[in-house]
């Protein structure tokens, strides 16, 4: 190729006789902005100078930074355009000279802009609801055509008017939604060149936080070491951060406050009244922030801050007791004394007791002070979250008040106690007088005086009519003196009781009677009942008397037999005459016994009960034994049935559940069969807050009253006693308070006993007793005797 060209040039040279020819390669040029390109100017013929001229006509000098001209040999020169811009466009001229000979050639250089994305950041973030403008700045020459795509498809602007291409080519989305989020394609095209380019832009829609307090108000109690929890739940995109503020101070985890990991829960430790107020929960993200108020209400439990003991004298015009208390809400203050409660605005019927309250102070005013006002008063301060109670003591000084029965009955040779019960403050000294002479005296050697903190007892053992009559008790203290006359009266035997009727059965009969018209001045202690077949010897038995005794059952009778029955009453003086005999006839043999009649007595402790039964008709056949069963009313199953010997009259159920209702069934069994059950229901006491003294239990064991100790089965202990055994003193152990017929001591210091007690002692010494656990249900052992 080069050879052909050389031949042509030689021919031209020969033909033109040394003319100069110039040619530029390439003959035209298109350069993209920023690119570089060179052009070669070739000369045919001798040329001394080869120069390049810019479109402006200026000669291009060597070593320009943007356009560089270099001559490589005698016949060629190179024009290089570096990093072309739009100013580089135009017609460039190459001129060759040799003396007066000149030749030139031109080349047109066109500069064009390729598709260039000047700004198309990704991601671009907007807040939900804003008018979003997605930036895509692109240039080219000629200007490009822009196409926007979303989720791979061209956006249809006619279908969703929220979308619009702005004049600057940006994509506008009015009221942008979270669903508009995703990848957008900004595509640029130049049809003249078939050029295409695009950018993927991630659009993120941030959602303003929403916030909701779990509780708009939180209540807490101060000064009890408790904590309060304040909580709010926040949502939004991106996930908002949650902070808390109180009194414009941002709260942080520390000694007072504790925040969970996401800040949604604020714990206020050791709540105090000063913590009360508004707390602000703040949720914040790129879209903005929202706040919610939570109110903390701090309540304070009532506390009595002032309450003092008071002293007054009887008949003072008035005394005022004052009680002050703090708390929030403001506590209501009330007073109580014994079983009476006094609240604001209440007065006693005689208007002697008035309660007045103001703010946190209450006063109880007692007018016309009486000695009965003395004692312990309780002030109670209460509000909706608790209460506080404190006691104070009102001391009332008063002169002696003498009480006690005026008349005391006894008989010659029987010691009696005349009791002078004295109430006084301060304590009083007590003196006894007889006919103006202080006792004991030389004329009254058969008297003794015994003093207790609340009474003085004059023991008189009359040996003649002279000792009966009037005795004077005089009590004195710093407040005054009080005297009272007491009478010692000769007692008599009672009158006869009256048999009002007899209810016969086949082997028993119930005698219904009325008490004697005259007691003889001293209580009836026993009744004697005697019965017989007409014309035969009387058979009798004595029965202990009490206030409720009006029916006595006699047993061991023969069916269809006529009997006579009579009664007499016995007091400390002696026995009455028998009442006229009544006649009755027993019924034929019926078969099974009648249902026992049951009674319940609460034992000491409250969760032990004694169930007594009164034997009714045995149906003409001796009772062989009794069957006892019991259960808590709410329980579905009965405790194991207990078999009790025929001589027993009661069981003691111990170790029962507190404050629980029980049912008890007792069935009598003879050879003919079983009776209908005798039934009784009862409720045990509420469990006491104090622990009973263990000394009582050990004493019972020493006396032989507890044969077994309660085991781990937690079944109640059942105590079975024979019918002859007297009921023991339930209070146990303590000294008996003397009465008018119980002498304190004999002159030698020994306790005086009536002959009537000898029989009881013998029976007691012979009494058998057994305790069994129901789950084991052993038979009673009649050979086990008291220690």
Automatic annotation (TrEMBL):
Any GO BP annotation: cell adhesion
Main location: membrane
Entry annotated with the keyword Disulfide bond: yes
Keyword annotations of the record: Cell adhesion, Cell membrane, Disulfide bond, Glycoprotein, Immunoglobulin domain, Membrane, Repeat, Signal, Transmembrane, Transmembrane helix
Low complexity biased stretches: 736-746
Protein name, as recorded: Neural cell adhesion molecule 1a
Domain Fibronectin type-III residues, every copy: 493-589, 592-689
Membrane topology: Single-pass membrane protein
Domain Ig-like span(s) in chain numbering: 20-110, 113-197, 209-297, 302-395, 400-487
CDD domains: FN3, Ig
Segments of skewed composition (Basic and acidic residues): 696-724, 747-763
Superkingdom assignment: Eukaryota
KW Ion transport (keyword) present: no
Organism: Scophthalmus maximus (Turbot)
Segments of skewed composition (Polar residues): 778-787
PANTHER family linked to this entry: CTX-RELATED TYPE I TRANSMEMBRANE PROTEIN, NEURAL CELL ADHESION MOLECULE 1
A Pfam cross-reference name: fn3
Signal peptide, first to last residue: 1-19
Compartments, as annotated in UniProt: Cell membrane
InterPro entries registered for this protein in UniProt: FN3_dom, FN3_sf, Ig-like_dom, Ig-like_dom_sf, Ig-like_fold, Ig_I-set, Ig_sub, Ig_sub2
Residue ranges, annotated region (Disordered): 674-787
Gene Ontology terms: cellular component: neuron projection; plasma membrane
